[in-house]
Amino acid sequence: MPADARREAVTALNAWSADEARRALSACCASRRWTDAMVDGRPYGGWTELAAAASAGIKALGWSDVLEALDAHPRIGDRAAGESREAKWSRAEQSAAASADAAVLDAVARANVEYERRFGHVFLICASGRPAEQILAEARRRLGNDAAAEQQEVRGELAAIVLLRLERLAASAGAGAGSAGAASNATGPATSAGAAR
Prior knowledge:
There is one protein chain. By secondary structure, the protein is mostly helical. It has helices at about 5-15, 20-25, 30-40, 45-60, 65-70, 85-95, 95-100, 100-120, 130-140, 145-175, 180-185. Helix 1 (about 5-15) crosses helix 10. The longest helix has 29 residues, at about 145-175. The chain starts with a helix and ends in a 12-residue tail after the last helix.
């Protein structure tokens, strides 16, 4: 993403009302604690500071806050419903995996169920650009983790998704010439949009 677009996006985020910023950022991460921290952390001096705050915010979340964020993510292979920004991003993030053959998609679905049974939450992975075979291999590998190790992996994947979505938010905010309406009109309340990115 061009530096000018990032700069415009940070300027827009800093200028939005707290409600507008909260609504836009909730498409990046559905944890209310993370969104509140990001809104309260304004103004940001630039993209590097914004991205660092986003990553630090994920690390600082309690596990219940992470679970709140996970609740907004559909299973890998499930199509996020609706026309919210978050749902559209979720579908785009999973598009590479969606083209796999039926046997691989069935194996991913079974791995999702096994993972949820083992860990009690959806399998989260930054699926953008990853084929289903790679996602399946990661799900199988992570089934061997203990709970503490898996929580660390989930945080890492969530942070990667958040940064990817911040880039997308920046692109849309920059395209709207920094207007709060451009970001908030396309961003409804967080939907049950998506888990395996």
